[in-house]
Amino acid sequence: MKRTLPPLNALRAFEAAGRLGSFKEAAAELHVTHGAVSQHVRALEEWLGASLFERHNRRVALSPAAKAYLAEIGPLFEQLSQATARYGFPETVSRTLSVNAPATFTLRWLVPRLATFRAAHPDVDVKVETSNESLESLREIYDVVVRGGPDTFYGYSMRPFLSEERVPVCSPALLQRLPLRTPDDLRQHTLLHTSSLPRVWPDWLASARIPALRPAAALTFDHFYLTLQAAIDGIGIAMGPTALVADDLAAGRLVAPFAGPRLPSRSYCTYVPDGKSADELVALFRAWLEREGARS
């Protein structure tokens, strides 16, 4: 006989929120966002055709019917947990999260922080692919795509998580050889360029009111991470995005010789297909990125 079952992820969110009396506490227990719990509860209410919660400021209260429903399904979750433990099965099944992000961002910001995500969620396997292609040009559907923004793409939800500006950066050893007291001293140095970002240096020089400055030399690389590595190696001066060079500045591998100007730059954003926006794992990773971005 065919069973009629509600969406199980939605049922799990309802059970946690009803037992704890809080969407926020349920989100913390389930390692998802408050919004993900709300979406799951709303989906269950639509499936059942009934309202389950009464909202009271920051707390939620079960409707009489929902209270009776919870009293019956709550023990079932406990039985499921005990049965899983009794027969030695792992309580969680490993899932893979597919992420596509620009190469330099992945190398210099995401990878150094992924260990903290893995430590908190060892059951989640993260598969990262790098690409600088536009969202519309990607041939695969990923759980999370990281690109600049904010932009709007049909079929995707967007949320910014990391802002940055661009400033000149170089190695401390280079400054010992050729000091930089004012932006005008850049005429004695080698400026490092990236072919995909031809306007970065001209825009900064215009902001510094020396648009006609001619440096001693210029080097151009096809990938931005090569440009930054050349700066670390003391070859010249690069325009460094503050988010991607923060660790190097903190460690003393790079220095920012000038207080300003600081060139505005686009934020890093997550773009998630509409069909995956309510996925618990996607919401979990998205929330983690936003916390790390706030710390940065």
UniProtKB/TrEMBL annotation:
Domain HTH lysR-type, first and last residues per copy: 6-63
Encoding gene per record: gcvA
Family of the protein in this entry: Belongs to the LysR transcriptional regulatory family.
Classification via PROSITE patterns: HTH_LYSR
SUPFAM superfamilies reported for this sequence: Periplasmic binding protein-like II (SSF53850), Winged helix' DNA-binding domain (SSF46785)
Protein name: Transcriptional regulator GcvA
Keywords: DNA-binding, Transcription, Transcription regulation
Matches recorded under InterPro entries: LysR-type_TF_proteobact-type, LysR_HTH_N, LysR_subst-bd, WH-like_DNA-bd_sf, WH_DNA-bd_sf
